[in-house]
Every structure is written in structure tokens, then in C-alpha cells.
């Protein structure tokens, strides 16, 4: 009885903060499109500038949090500086360059579902490139297949429109950058504090986006105080969600926390429909959401001890 009570308390300690994280991440989809309107963002380079300023500020917020907590500015070891900068180029510059451009040419509903596939790509890449870790199982393969079926379904021609390379195609590439960045960060954070690595990669990666946007002639024209409010929210949500998520991973088993990732596309779809009045595309969107969520649950679910694992490639 005592053990059951302790398990219930542990579960309760994870549920609310984990749901808050996924709610924040899901809300980014409609808020980005609202931000485009609030800042009169027109053209690719203005979108890049908007993204760069947002993530540079998000990185500063993470570093400020660590500065207050540790009473000193977090700086990566000298031998890791290039690795952290490289992580910023992949995880922030490349990922969000593709993400922002792609999201401008699709709906928040479809964008949130496509972004949910990042979990599957990470699982697949980890099997081949992380020796002795994250072995692929039949259950995980099934989860990946189920999730991708959902993504394909929502992109079929119909009420939601067809597949566009400059929309959904760019978002798929953005998820690939996230997956590659996840593997890189796993190695980097063995020698660099996660807050330090994330803060600097967000700031440096965002700064590169700002430079690209300015050199390309990008311009922002805020329409008032409300526009700055949405901008600050977009920057803060990344910092807050990352901080909470990291604390959860420090205090609880990773699998217990990771399963809540399936709520992000759900919140993204619902909030896009609420704030942008985007169509849920009837049964296709509903079915796609069910499949994506089922796939994420299968991937994150603990496999039985007897379940066979697929051979893993070894690297010298």
C-alpha cells in the first residue's frame, strides 16, 4: 500500500509539469503564424530574421537562468566550444531555418503533426549511430510505421490540400535536423552542462539566423505592444519548457517523462484550430492524430524483457 502511494505521488509529480511543457511546445505552431501577422513578416528573409531573434533571446534566457542559479555565467570548456557552435548550426540554424520557411506554406494543424515524427527519426538514427544504446525493437519499428502512416494520411489530397515541397517537405527536413542534433547533443552534454550547451547553441544558432536574415534584406514591422507580447512568449516558452523538461529528466526515469511527448502534436492541432480557426480536415486529421499518438506511445513504451532486439551496427 505504501509503495502504491509513493508511485502515485511520483506520477503526479511528473504529469502536471510534463503536460505544461507539451502545451507550451504545441502552442508555438499557431503563435508563430500569429507572430508573422503581428510583425508584418513578408518574404523568406524576414521569416529567418524573426526566427533568429526569437531563438537568440531564448538562449539568453536559458543562460540568464543558469547565471542566477549558479552565480556565474555558464561557459563551455574551450575544447568543446566548436562542438557547441556546430550543435547550434544544426539544432537551431538549420532546423528552424527549414521549420519557419515550411510552416509559412502549410497549416499549423499539419505542421504540428509532421513535427511529431521527430521522435521516430531519432529512434531510428540512434539504433545505427549510438553503440550499445537505444536498440531498435519490433515494438519500436511498429511505432515508427504507425506514426508515419498518420503523417502520410494527413498529407493526402483532400480538404487539407496536397503535399508541398516548400511546406511539408521543409518541415520533414527540419525534423531530420532535430534528430541529428539530438544525437550530437547526447555526446556534447557528456562534457558540457546541458543548460550551458542549450543556452549557447540557441544563442549562437539564432545569431546566425539573424545575420542571414539581415543580409538578405529581412525586415520586421511590429504593429504594437501586442506584437512584442507574442514575440516574448515565443522566446520564453522554449526556455521555460526546456528548463522544466530537464529537471523532470534529472528526477525521474527518462521513459516515464518521454511518453508525454505525444501530447505536443495534439495541443498543436487543437490550438491551431482554436486560434487560427484552421480546419481539422474531418476524419483524416482525427485518424492521423490517433496514429501519430499511438506510434509515439509504442516507441516510448517499455518493451518486455523477452522481446527480441534487432542487430545493431557497430562502428570503429
UniProtKB/TrEMBL annotation:
Q: Which Gene3D superfamilies match?
A: 1.10.3730.20
Name the residues that span the membrane: 12-36, 48-68, 80-101, 113-130, 142-163, 169-188, 200-218, 230-250, 257-276, 282-299
Q: Which residues form a coiled coil?
A: none
* One of the record's GO cellular component terms: plasma membrane
Instruction: Kindly list the places in or outside the cell where this protein is found, as annotated in its UniProt entry.
Output: Cell membrane
Look up and give the membrane topology term: Multi-pass membrane protein
Family note:
Belongs to the EamA transporter family.
Q: Show the PANTHER family listed in the entry.
A: INNER MEMBRANE TRANSPORTER, S-ADENOSYLMETHIONINE_S-ADENOSYLHOMOCYSTEINE TRANSPORTER
UniProt protein name:
DMT family transporter
